[in-house]
């Protein structure tokens, strides 16, 4: 860098911390980190609309994933199908109640809260309006909750358990399992469209 740039014009790569000078981009341009390729700046209105659409999709998939049958176990002529909600509710009495609460919060509550906060922040911005009150707090909350959204871990854990009980009973996957898989893909796509810097920039410019 030849001359020192003001701090608010610098943008640090969220993956590798390389510093770049920010720039106003055209409608179809995007900026990526020169060192590691992480997306830094996205075109504003369009990427906001993409993220809103994907967050809505994720919320609907989430509801399907909780209430539809997750898996069906058959052994010796008996079969039983359960949804994630039913399983969590099975622990809702006695000393295991905190477990039921933690399961529902980590698998269901936090992702829905996060998608809701993202939609709240981005909806006015995508319509070229000023951000709604407390948008900055809502976006910070969505960012802080990200490491706690554990749909992927849940699917991996389930897969391991299925392999283990595969020898004892015949197990078939219900629609909720596939809804969870679609949810993971939708979440990954959303992260690909989402540039924190662009959103902070849009929230800041009233
Ligand atoms: Zn980088």
Automatic annotation (TrEMBL):
It comes from the Bacteria. Keywords: Membrane, Transmembrane, Transmembrane helix. The chain crosses the membrane at residues 48-75, 95-123, 150-171, 177-200. InterPro entries: PqiA-like (IPR007498). Pfam families: PqiA. The keyword Disulfide bond does not apply. This is Paraquat-inducible membrane protein A. It comes from Rhodobacter xanthinilyticus. The lineage of its organism: Bacteria, Pseudomonadati, Pseudomonadota, Alphaproteobacteria, Rhodobacterales.
